[in-house]
Amino acid sequence: MGGAVGILAYGSLIGDPGAEIEPAITSRIACLTPFPVEFARQSRTRKGAPTLVPSERGASIRAQMSLSI
């Protein structure tokens, strides 16, 4: 069984999807997040860098659907 998989990427994932995801991406579609987000957490793995998370107080931002077929 085959099929397509889509990942909604926003924030740093657009430019750096990571070694696990990057090789599987076959196309990208620009979009906006369908939900509001804001910088509301600190990353444990990126030295405390701010992290975008879904939040009712935030706004929709530039995003990207990364597709793998």
From TrEMBL:
Domain of life: Bacteria
Protein name in UniProt: Uncharacterized protein
